[in-house]
Please model this.
Amino acid sequence: MASNLRITVNGAEHEVTAAPDTPLLYVLRNELELDGPKFGCGLSQCGACTVLLGNNAIRSCITPVSSVAQSNQPVTTLEGLGTVAKPGALQQAFIDEQAGQCAYCMSGMIMTSAALLKQNPHPSDDEIKTALAGNLCRCGSHLRIIRAVKRAASALA
Model:
């Protein structure tokens, strides 16, 4: 049964109508028309759907929208980090390092990296690898992704 729920996404408050157990991903993509978070596996295994809830990276494909509404924490998607005309520092670093090939995983990689840099502004290579271990990339862009995160860390310092 659908309910009206209030969530804050990318700095704007939204009233959404959804069943409480509806995955946040579906609300973001279908109701708010944000296409940064991707549907990858639907099982929290690939990371393509990663968004920030507060400062923490979460998998939106398994997070019920009702739990987000109850948390009163803001959601940030890729669109909340910057725009095409003015990318955020992390987005620009991924562009500069040409970190994406097919780029399907990039939103999740960037959002997980954003959470990492909020918690650790100067991560080592091993810390970056550990943080991104749950995000799958079939293209093999891992080394460029690590360079992009390090570049962003330097730019944000």
About this structure: The first strand starts at residue 3 and ends at 9. The mean pLDDT is 96. Residues 142-156 form the longest helix (15 residues).
